[in-house]
Amino acid sequence: MLDTERLLEETPALGSGWFSLAKEALIMPGVNVPRTNRCDNLAITGIAITQNTEYQGQAFVVGKSSDYSSTILHAKAIRKIEYPIHFSPNFLIAYLEVDPNSEGMSVGIIDLQIEPTPSVMWAGRSIYQLFKNIREWSFMVDEPFSSDHPMATYSKLVLESLNPPQQIIDEIDSMPDMHLAKFLKGQSDYKIIPNHPSISQSFKDWIILKSQQYPFKPFEEQL
User: Cβ contacts of residue 212 below 8 Å, gap of 6+?
Assistant: First the structure.
């Protein structure tokens, strides 16, 4: 379980891990996770929301590089993976932490502002940055964009499923633009993560509430 301090951290240091949106899948060694000697039959994992779609080359898959980068995220480099929110069977909010000193790691710290793989711009160093990205992408489903990109459709699903109160939506909207909004506005620095204001206690309380309502549940607990 991800500790509360990291879950609610407002300004995590570079290299301290990141939050992302994932979709639920049963573990298939050698298919959606690296092949191991463990028996993980009927175990649940989170995989990239683009996996098995026409956009799958835009995201990291463990053990492989994306279509945009030579960076490889090896399984042995993953120091921690947690799912603080699990809205089964639709989506998970994942937290991934990498050991930059791991043997065979093709790059040290994965800097979300430098790494060219597009999926890093859907993630956030904090869970609040992730929700800002989700909010921006959720509009892409509607006209005039009418996008079928998984980050758009899953983002809309997240907001509809978790149903943040208007107070939280207003706070998210007041946060500085993240990558997508900056890109659509023609800003050349769209890769740069802006400084974010202090997060309200109400937002933090809502995050805790959702993590308690929708904790990660292994497959056997869902039967």
Answer: none
